[in-house]
Structure to design on (238 residues):
């Protein structure tokens, strides 16, 4: 096993997974890849299985049915911890997260506990998003920051690097949120535990292939979950 594992959740990302996995491997020789596929009807799992058969640094975790982003990452975290990886990274399959940023994550993680790739740390570094979606995303992150108190600009980012000890401390079995709420909650729990959480500027480019998994349910979950986190902070639960 390598030193660091990049977890890539997939659902109907057949074309993208074929592109992103080789680029991740080429970004840094210390990286392995775990594709967590929720039985994609389009054959994403079969493509990932072929890539795994061709390269020992690529691994596949198949799950029965679509269970959500947060659940996929939790399964990937457990898989990584069981196999002794020192660093565990999250990234999207659709190439909106540029693999060229991965060595920067590894470098910062030598001294920081959790590194978050930020679209809003230095202005706005988002390419090809409609203005409406960009404004909604920026406002959502402002809202989450104000309600939870976590001093980051991009709490909903899905491009992150955790040190092993952070994941071991987070009580993964207690996390049940998905989507944006999952991203906010993991950062909130790490911050509340006293770990050093920092942002790193990234360039985010909207997907060219496939469909976004955004839904009203994901948005509503994030809206109410941040208030739950505020309550946890007030009561000292987390």
């Amino acid at each position: 096993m390598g030193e660091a594992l990049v977890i890539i959740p997939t659902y109907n990302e057949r074309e993208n997974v074929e592109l992103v996995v080789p680029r991740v491997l080429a970004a840094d020789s210390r990286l392995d890849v775990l594709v967590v596929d929720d039985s994609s009807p389009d054959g994403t799992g079969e493509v990932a299985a072929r890539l795994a058969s061709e390269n020992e640094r690529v691994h596949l975790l198949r799950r029965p049915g679509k269970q959500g982003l947060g659940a996929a990452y939790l399964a990937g975290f457990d898989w990584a911890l069981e196999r002794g990886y020192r660093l565990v990274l999250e990234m999207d399959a659709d190439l909106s997260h540029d693999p060229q940023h991965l060595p920067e994550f590894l470098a910062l993680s030598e001294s920081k506990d959790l590194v978050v790739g930020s679209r809003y740390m230095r202005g706005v570094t988002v390419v090809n998003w409609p203005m409406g979606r960009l404004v909604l995303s920026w406002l959502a992150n402002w809202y989450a920051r104000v309600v939870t108190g976590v001093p980051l600009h991009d709490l909903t980012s899905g491009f992150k690097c955790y040190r092993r000890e952070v994941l071991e401390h987070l009580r993964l079995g207690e996390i049940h949120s998905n989507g944006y709420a999952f991203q906010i909650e993991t950062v909130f729990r790490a911050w509340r535990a006293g770990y050093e959480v920092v942002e790193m500027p990234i360039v985010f480019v909207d997907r060219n292939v496939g469909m976004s998994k955004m839904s009203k349910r994901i948005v509503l979950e994030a809206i109410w979950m941040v208030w739950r986190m505020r309550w946890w902070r007030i009561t000292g639960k987390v």
Remarks:
- The longest helix spans residues 216-235.
- Residues 4-235 form a domain with the Spore Coat Polysaccharide Biosynthesis Protein SpsA; Chain A fold (CATH 3.90.550.10).
